[in-house]
């Protein structure tokens, strides 16, 4: 109940994203789709929408958007039939085919270079400028920063560095590093990321779980819908994971996930609020 009351005011302006009219835009990037929804712009079609809901299940993208197929192999016939006014994504190799259907823009958050929080702002503003919603974007960024300032004061002092992981399967995890969406939030909350090793283009490293005991930092396990439905039970039944937890001294946080870990500003803020609420309670 405490999380509901502390976060309700801020999340309200993200929850009304579908009050506006749906625009004839096809999106190939979930961070793009989330951000457009935040700006009160509903996409007509989205690639791999079912997969997004399996991993995030957060209501940030409307269920009545049309499924356009895989991002790497979209249903070009369907897209052509929908006759979008704009296609937004980061798949340059598809540009030639898509450009025969509608104008195509490659606006993407990743890879992040430089300050991650600034990258989220720049990405949000670039989308907003393309569609004439600059003032809305500036207002939402300002409100986000004000909320982050409030959240930072709620965090108990003397926090250990955090090692943020998400299970890929029951033997491997993704660890979120310095070029990730989450790094920008940690910076804004004055928290330290325990992982400082090289990452891939979305700020993630893949690590075997038997390497985790040797990595310093408080373990933060992201409990996504995918984790809950297909991985959590196997881990709880398996002796290896339980033994690894004991080696880490039991100081592990399980963080609910109602955001996309590679998303835009809406997911970043959902992560921030959930993380702070969990740190308050542990």
Automatic annotation (TrEMBL):
It is found in: Cell envelope. InterPro entries: ABC_transptr_periplasmic_BD (IPR002491), Bact_iron-sidero_bind (IPR051313). Pfam families: Peripla_BP_2. The keyword Amino-acid biosynthesis does not apply. Residues 1-19 form the signal peptide. It comes from the Bacteria. Keywords: Ion transport, Iron, Iron transport, Signal, Transport. Its main location: other. Belongs to the bacterial solute-binding protein 8 family. Residues 24-282 form the Fe/B12 periplasmic-binding domain. This is Iron(3+)-hydroxamate-binding protein fhuD.
